[in-house]
UniProtKB/TrEMBL annotation:
E.C. number: 3.1.1.4
The protein, known as: Phospholipase A2
Residues annotated to bind Ca(2+): Y39, G41, G43, D60
Gene: PLA2G1B
Catalysis performed (reactions): N,1-dihexadecanoyl-2-(9Z,12Z-octadecadienoyl)-sn-glycero-3-phosphoethanolamine + H2O = N,1-dihexadecanoyl-sn-glycero-3-phosphoethanolamine + (9Z,12Z)-octadecadienoate + H(+); 1-hexadecanoyl-2-(9Z-octadecenoyl)-sn-glycero-3-phosphocholine + H2O = 1-hexadecanoyl-sn-glycero-3-phosphocholine + (9Z)-octadecenoate + H(+); 1-hexadecanoyl-2-(5Z,8Z,11Z,14Z-eicosatetraenoyl)-sn-glycero-3-phosphocholine + H2O = 1-hexadecanoyl-sn-glycero-3-phosphocholine + (5Z,8Z,11Z,14Z)-eicosatetraenoate + H(+); N-hexadecanoyl-1,2-di-(9Z-octadecenoyl)-sn-glycero-3-phosphoethanolamine + H2O = N-hexadecanoyl-1-(9Z-octadecenoyl)-sn-glycero-3-phosphoethanolamine + (9Z)-octadecenoate + H(+)
Length: 137
């Protein structure tokens, strides 16, 4: 069962990565956001260091809210493994979460869409990558 879980979480992460690439075609999402500020990447604590880090904090909170969402089933609708339907208008860099999503998929899709749009309008500051953990208390 672990293998299926790993595969699903990789697919869900890849879906989010593709969404970021829709709004920022020249970015490297997995590298750029894997260890940035206090909230981008695994875990999160302290005060966000900038707008981009705040995008990640809001995204983390959105996933937490998804786990409490009345339409989301525990385990089955985990935001870290949920797959949803969306489309990307490459010319306008616009993401649309599609109406064929159920209520839970739509909620999680919106979490990812808002984060991708937030990343696109926030500066990436090299000094905020690989922050020492004592900066995030």
């Amino acid at each position: 069962a672990d293998t299926i879980w790993t595969l699903l979480s990789w697919m869900a992460l890849n879906q989010f990565r593709d969404m970021i690439l829709c709004t920022m075609p020249n970015s490297w999402p997995i590298l750029d956001y894997a260890d940035y500020g206090c909230y981008c990447g695994k875990g999160g604590s302290g005060t966000p260091v900038d707008d981009l880090d705040r995008c990640c904090q809001v995204h983390d909170q959105c996933y937490t809210d998804a786990m409490q969402h009345p339409e989301c089933w525990p385990v089955f609708d985990n935001p870290y493994t949920e797959l949803y339907h969306y489309s990307c208008d490459k010319e306008n860099k616009k993401i649309t979460c599609e109406s064929k999503n159920d209520a839970c998929e739509m909620f999680i899709c919106d979490c990812d869409r808002k984060a991708a749009e937030c990343f696109a309008r926030s500066a990436w500051i090299p000094e905020h990558e690989h922050l020492p953990s004592d900066r995030c208390q």
